[in-house]
Design brief:
The chain has 6 helices and 6 strands, in the order βαβαβαβαβααβ. The protein is α/β, with parallel strands linked by helices. It has a 6-stranded mixed beta sheet with strand order 2-1-3-4-5-6, sandwiched between helices. Strand 1, helix 1 and strand 2 form a beta-alpha-beta unit. The protein is globular. 33% of the residues are buried. The model has no long low-confidence stretch (mean pLDDT 84).
Amino acid sequence: MRKELPEIVRADEWAPLVIRTDYTDDAAWRAVVAELERGAGDREWESPVHLVDDRRWDGVTSDEALVAAARDEELSVVFLADGVTMRSPLRPLLALDLGADDDQDLDPVFYQELIDSPPPREVRVVPDAVHLVHGNLQLANVDFPEFAEEAADDPDGVVRDL
């Protein structure tokens, strides 16, 4: 049975959405928040981050988070602070592509290759790169698979803000 998750109401569509889904290490969470806030302060164009720190999200899977975040039709990506985030010294958040479901109704006559090998729908992002990923996806400057390629080329498997 799926959890009934609270609705997320963002005041600013340019604020990346970060949901805490792991409550095992409060110090690690504070470090993630500090890194997110530090990244937001470096550039004038960046919005603050919309943080969801509510124990009702504890243990939520990426699929559950995708369903809940998809209620916001303006949102293109959601970031999860999960167990990997809390245990890794890089604090990489799990970025989930909300646009991936757009491929569900593809005609197999023309798109069989895409149906057989769907593009990645998740990638790890260091906190400093959250605004970069969110902003570019919101503006449609970059597609999610491009960020996945960037992470694949990184020695730690993460997207970084250059």
